[in-house]
Specification:
Helices cover 66% and strands 0% of the residues. The protein has helices at 39-46, 48-63, 71-91, 101-128, 130-133, 142-146, 148-168, 180-204, 208-222, 229-235, 241-246, 248-261, 268-292, 296-299.
Length: 300
């Protein structure tokens, strides 16, 4: 029996590639900006995921721990339209431009409600999120912008009820309904412009959050919610008529009703002025907010 010598294979040398150096993380440098600096716009776009998260949070908190939930969105405009029906329809007997008064008041109240809801939430969002502002960096402009989403959800629910009311009172929609998103966008821009400035002031002066709701309630009657622009211009003295023209909500609410109910527009020049004023107010509010943003974390 022959034996073969046992041979062992030499170990195979394996070459290990050198590990690539880790890529350096981008350095974020925070520097004071200027009120006219447009970098805040790009910052908001870079943090758009955070904007969506905060918007979804506001929607959830809007209906959490409420007994009636979404019913509040329907009750408020119904109560507002009912009160206007008694005060302006039965007592003051204001005209409703050829449509049923209740639908006329409901549409006006719904438009103004979309404005004051965003304004209220945007002006108080900085103080309500003080724990985020003082500890974490992100574009502060995201906080007031995130409040628009919950307003649009409320508006969609109210729009469904308005559709039912129009069917009940036999009010037919017109092709002008396609322009409704334009007036809604401009109303939100006015609310955000004032809300930007109000949010910045509230950080330093907390009594602003108590005075603003009073002014908003006054604006409900100073704006053509329970009456038409033509009626206001007809009844007001000559010296007070410029107040109607200066109010950017006058043309927007008038155009809002035209799109929804087909009521006549008093003045397209007034609508054009309101559209330009909405853009100016939005830009002014954003620039003012950007200018005062540098001191938020120190005084909030």
């Amino acid at each position: 029996m022959s034996t073969q010598p046992l041979t062992t294979q030499p170990p195979i040398a394996t070459a290990t590639a050198p590990m690539a150096p880790a890529e350096p993380r981008p350095l974020l440098v925070l520097q004071p900006g200027h009120s006219w600096d447009l970098s805040a716009v790009t910052d908001v776009w870079h943090y758009r995921d955070l904007l969506l998260v905060l918007a979804a949070r506001d929607v959830k908190l809007r209906y959490r721990q409420t007994a009636l939930g979404v019913a509040w969105v329907l009750i408020q405009p119904l109560l507002g339209a009912g009160i206007f029906q008694v005060l302006f329809g039965l007592l003051a007997k204001t005209p409703s431009d050829g449509v049923p008064p209740f639908v006329f008041y409901f549409a006006g109240f719904m438009a103004y409600r979309s404005f004051d809801s965003t304004l209220n939430k945007a002006s108080s969002c900085m103080v309500g999120n003080a724990h985020l502002v003082s500890k974490v960096y992100f574009p502060r402009l995201i906080l007031p912008l995130s409040t628009v989403c919950s307003t649009l959800v409320d508006f969609a629910v109210s729009a469904g009820l308005l559709t039912v009311l129009m069917a009940v009172f036999h009010v037919s929609p017109t092709p002008a309904l396609l322009l409704l998103p334009v007036w809604l966008l401009l109303l939100q821009m006015v609310a955000l412009g004032i809300g930007f400035y109000g949010a910045a002031l509230t950080v330093r002066y907390r009594d602003v959050q108590h005075a603003l709701p009073v002014l908003i309630q006054f604006g409900l009657y100073a704006s053509p919610v329970a009456y038409s622009v033509s009626f206001a211009l007809q009844k007001l003295p000559e010296a007070l008529r410029p107040l109607v023209y200066l109010n950017p909500l006058s043309g927007l609410i008038d155009a809002f009703r035209w799109s929804v109910l087909g009521t006549p527009v008093t003045s397209w020049a007034l609508v054009a002025y309101s559209a330009v004023a909405a853009l100016v107010v939005f830009a002014w509010g954003a620039l003012s907010f950007n200018r005062m943003e540098q001191s938020f974390a120190d005084v909030i």
